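FORM 7B - TANDEM STRUCTURE REPORT

SECTION 1: FIRST PROTEIN
SEQUENCE AND TOKENS:
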Amino acid sequence: MPAIIKEHRGRACRLIDLNGPDAAGTDRNQMPFEPLSVRISMAVRMTGIGRSKLYELIQSGDIEVVKIGASTLIPVESLRQLIARNRRP
């Protein structure tokens, strides 16, 4: 099933299909939301990278950013790619 894009708290989010009801019998097909992008503070928490290092990675082009007005957003996929590129066998 393709991802469904909805707006949640002013952000575009992709709904995750969890394939059916949970243990309580509640339909879980439309929860939880996975954000398309996060602010700097959330990216720091998600990755465990320090704020200064995160800004260095942005400056070097290792992490993509999206500027919307005064907000700096980091696509979650960019964080995933960073982690994947730096994994050690």
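SECTION 2: SECOND PROTEIN
SEQUENCE AND TOKENS:
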Amino acid sequence: MYFRGYSILNILGHSSVRFIIVGAIATMTHAVMAMILLSFDRDLSVLKVNTAAFLIAVLVSYAGHALYTFKMSGSLYKYILTSIICLFINNTVAFVFDHIAKSKPVAIAVGMLVAPIVGYAISRKWVFSDRQNTKS
């Protein structure tokens, strides 16, 4: 099957598309884990639930990117740092756009669009770079 002259398999084979697929799976993992944690104890703080679910999603995301997106091992420490940076960017953009647009859904959506672009660039150039994976 082709789309504008490109094979669907070629499109799905591009690392940016694979990054989106893995990111969607990690996002679903985050949401499901948060719901599971809340089902055990509705009185848990949002911060605790969100942080625990985020950490689980980061591990799922790292494994997916190492095995599927970039097909090479990367530094888990660098990936966690990248994830924290992306979380900070996401929250900062959402905070700013909440004050500009006065719409929380719009603010969150913009943050969710900006942070993954930064995350992809950092992951590709730093976390999963060919330089760090070459054997001397």
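SECTION 3: OBSERVATIONS ON SECOND PROTEIN
The CA atoms of residues 93 and 111 lie 5 Å apart.
Residues 75-136 form one domain.

SECTION 4: SIGNATURE
Preparer initials: ____
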